[in-house]
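User: Second chain of the day. Same drill as before.
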Amino acid sequence: MTNRKKWVIVLVIVLALGMTAAGCSKNSDGSGSSKTAESGGSATEGGTTAGKTDSNATTKSGDSTTGGSTTGGNMKWTAVDVTSILGDSIITAIAYGGGKFVAGASSSADGNMAYSSDGVTWTAVTESPFVITNATHGMVYANGKFVVVGDVGIIAYSTNGTDWTRVNTGTIFEYTSSGATHKAAVTAIAYGGGKFVVGSRNGKMAYSTDGVTWTAVDISNITNDTLRSIAYGNGTFVGTWGYNGKIMTSKDGITWTAIANSPFGSSYVEVAYGGNKFVGGNYKGTIAYSTDGVTWTTVSNSTFGESIINVIAYANGKFVAGGSVGKMAYSSDGVTWTTVTNSTFRESIDAIAYGNGTFVAGGKGGRMAYSKD
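Assistant: Same format as last time:
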């Protein structure tokens, strides 16, 4: 073989090796090794996590930072305009039963209640049990009826959500101030173990098996605070009182015991039950869970930061929490939470319910939205 042929062969081999090396060093955008997303090593598409988050990574969405949890929720919410019915007041209670949602608000010219079969189109309750200046504070559907509670000791029930009857609670919620007798607002309600249980201020509570006839429960020897939230599950009521994070439990809604160690500090607490556990959240953004209402474990990242949590609900296999400035998150287990990126709310979210394949949420300014996710 001539020297010239040898040099040609060597030159071809060198060129081939160079092209191979160049091809191996090219990345997906033609300029480097394989591309890494900028959100803590997770791949993103359209601003949402695309299922590749490193469990040790930190991802950021807005002003919330999560470690080991996913941000950028897939719950899609659609706003509903109900201000022509409920005005611009705060929607404080929503419940579903008997094929319809019923919502109550803090005040409106139409008596502050409305109903809907789908959570989208709403109709005013023409004869609400509340007068214009009174607010609803809680509502449940159980045992074939809606029961709603609110200002000045009001408790009312309805079998269809449209026709309401106020009940006579006598002196159960009365208190004396400045020499005058008043009726305290009934602030929370739950159903479980065959009875409705409600509470107000000054350690006053009551229970009923039918929502009509009520029996007083006095727990003033334990607390004089106002009942903030109450839930039932696993044979136990869990109630939260006042602004000091106090939690109490009861097997029957009558005899109550304060737990020794609350994880919520000096703060009011909202509580819900689902998925074999209680989950609570407070106005400092703390979320904790418990299987028995006594021993609680704080979640490492609620996604709320230090923002207020006003409501927690459980349905369709998930907890959904809402708070101030439109913040919302959801969780399948109450431990790992996902931020909802667009709740459609600008201010506080104060009520959430589920029915007919739909979550419905309401809040300040008469704002309402629904989600089928």
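The two ends are 75 Å apart (CA to CA).

User: Great, on to the next one.
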